[in-house]
Amino acid sequence: MKHxxxxxxxxxxxxxLIDATTSLILRQxxxxxxxxxxxxxxxxxxxxxxxxxxxxxxxxxxxxxxxxEFGQSLYGEAWKQPGQPLExxxxxxxxxxxxxxxxxxxxxxxGMLTQEMSGEHPGFRAACARELDVWTEMxxxxxxxxxxxxxxxxxxxxxxxxxxxxxxWQGSALxxxxxxxxxxxxxxxxxxxxxxxxxxxxxxxxVS
Length: 208
What we know:
Elements: H1 4-8, H2 10-28, H3 35-42, H4 46-52, H5 56-75, H6 85-100, H7 109-117, H8 122-149, H9 158-179, H10 182-198
């Protein structure tokens, strides 16, 4: 019989389960997380869990998707106001720096799961790869537009630069976690911002 709470508030119940799973993965990884811990963290029964998800892998995939959607919403603030492509890139860096100043640890769930699960679970590898692709395309498209609007100081491949920035962001979060230093992450972001500006002869003057 389906769980009464799941029937009455399915979205609320599902959200509690996903939030609890996200917190556990960020704290201890996916393999160390159990369904019992997820249910305890959400304050729900196993009946509620299995009403919404087939197994732990199923909710893990849902968590990756939700994390990606959250990130897209967060980064989407960069182009809600008018501006040139390079200005939007600067806003993206501002958002990333803002993430480092939050009280919770500056870690990326997608990055963590990529490291932990890619070698043993093709489904997680594919899900994480999709989210990394989305993040990279966000930068690539704006670098491509900036290259068209501004005079490049050097020839560059927007896709290569975007993947470099993705790698720098993920790697900085990893090293920052190990060294317990968000200032290290912010320093790397400042260097990355300066590097992007250096790609253009005059970052603030569009080609007429």
